[in-house]
Please model this.
Amino acid sequence: MNRFIGFLKKEFYHIFRDKRSMLILFGMPIVQIMLFGYVISTDLKDVKMAVLDHSKDEYSTEIINKITSSGYFSLTENLESVEEADAVFRKGDVKLILVFEPDFGKNLIKNSKGNIQILTDASDPNTANLEVNYLQGILQNYNIKINSGKKRPFSIQTKTRMYFNSNLESVFMFIPGIMATILMLVSAMMTSISIAREKELGTMEILLVSPLNPLQIILGKVTPYLVLSFINALVIVGMGYFIFGVPILGSFALLMAECILFIFLALSIGIYISTVSKSQQVAMMLSMFGLMLPTIILSGFIFPIRNMPIPLQVISNIIPPKWFIIILKNIMLKGVGFEYVWKETLILIVMTMGFIGLSLKKFKIRLE
Amino acid sequence: MRILKYLLQKEFLQIFRNKSMLPIIFVMPILQLCVLSFAATYDMKNTNLYVVDKDLSSHSRELISKFNGSPFFTVKEIGFSEKEAEKEIFRDNIDAILVFNKDFGKSVDLKTQASVQILVNAINASSAGLYNAYINSVILDYNEDIKPNFAKLGQDNQHNIVKTTYSHQFNPEMKYIPYMLPGLLVLLVTVISLFLSAMNVVREKEIGTIEQINVTPIKKSQFLMAKLIPFLVIGFFELGLGLLIAVFAFNIPLLGSVWLIYLVAFVYLATILGFGLLISTQTDTQQQAMFIAWFFMVIFLLMGGLFTPIESMPEWGQKLNSLNPIAYFIKIIRMIMLKGSGFFDILRELAILGIFAISTITIAVRMYRKVS
Model:
């Protein structure tokens, strides 16, 4: 036991003495959360818009003013003919062109219908969709305004209530996602590379002939990273809560327990990767490449899993962060207890055991 | 020149001899490109609705069938209790609930205040906004349907209405894959080049082989060129393979010039490789190099406009992005492929990338010391 503690101490020193890596490992989550909390958003803002106004009357001017003062759109160019549209789009900055028909104002008043055509640069379909939605909202308000005082035709009204995130803050979605990404990559990447490093430098042989048994070696290797990752989890949750107001409605203890479970899983994946890779480079590419994009794209972090094709929905089930993100959102945003997340927790536990089992098997073979 | 040739031979041999790296370099990126392009979609396909219909009138039924008929919605369940429906939202089985109160149909018939309550699962903020907008547009449509009954009363025609029509250029079917795949391709090429170059020189340092090279008469620039050129070749190869898959397997149009893409890729890869080399010269272990590369990679990636539009970022974020090489290349490759933009359309971005390339490589070469 004393020997193990000595080894553990050595590993801790080894990692914590490397100031540069420490700075990155602790600094990274902070920088990332700050950036993503403030920078990343899927809302529209200041979309560059060009106008082709064939009519140039008080109504079209008023509508343009209304649109630009909404904050969602900014007018950057006035076009003379529709032929210019393509070239303007191809230059890349303008995402949207509004075309007012000739005699727009006259038609609006006399024939009670004025036409505006919206041209979007739909090479980005999501933005194009949002633009049309936002514009139609603005114009609908305008319609109500110019018809004020008149009796409105009957229509069914809607009342909306948003559950769990009433202001639709993107950061509520990003905090759990970033947390899963960072814990996954930091834990898996670091362990995989640190064991592979011993192999590559030849020091693993020395460790293996030492009186420490393989399990102790592995534990000694992963414990510092467990501590490190756990601190990172605390930092992320803390920043989310204090800086961005992401609630923790459920039990904090449960949240932390789930974090530790997920870190264990990530560490066991790291160990498994290190048992199958001969060099740091292979270990790094496998953990980095194999885990980063699937964690970001297939876990439901950014893209809702339900919108994916069925085969991918099936594949997403083997992506561990998917389950962790569900757990995080359930505890933090919905405030539900263990009875709502036991299934996901069980899946994480089974995955952890699976990877540990696989690594043990591989590890033994390698020892012979 | 001959020295460079031999060095290159050595580097290429080293890469191709490493059997476990080959599939990682050549198979994994392509596999991810093919799989993940399908996953990266905001397309609304299977929005699950729960309808609480306490009214059971012809109007509520008509509206429900309208939702059922729309490709965006699946009516999962119809019940009478909001409590039950809420439970489903808590279990994440349901994206939105529609509640028709008892007097809904009657109110529609009598043209008094009729309203539908919409409860949205807003765990995912961006989808929630879309769910709400789509549900509202179905109800708006229904309003149009029931209007004729009232038009007879002569109320409708006095209203002045701004009508809009829209047309989506370059991608009228609003598909996501043409938008996401070129971006993902940039990302994969970047990951490969950045990580391989960042870990390369430092690897020789860590293993000790760099000493042997340092005592030879090989010039610094020759050594570094030999380190970079193979990765440039690999990057070009991956890009070409990715473009072929994009055009032939995914039927993504390539409206602009392939040569132009390659010209940009050359400048871009020079930037990334220079940056990787810089990391490599400034670190002592592969582990450090990897962390630093990863740190910048994730920031470049998430800020690069691949998943969320750069225009929605606050001004300082957009300014920060003017230093982000990934953002330029993603923007340019999308412009060239999907809109057929030409050389002069992308000149500004290309020039900036050129400045990046020259500076990173110059700095990296200067920072590299032959004597440790």
Observations:
- Chain A touches chain B through 125 residues (CB under 8 Å).
- The beta strands of chain A are 47-53, 73-78, 96-100, 113-121, 157-163.
- The longest helix of chain A spans residues 171-201.
- Residues 47-147 of chain A form a domain with the abc type-2 transporter like fold fold (CATH 3.40.1710.10).
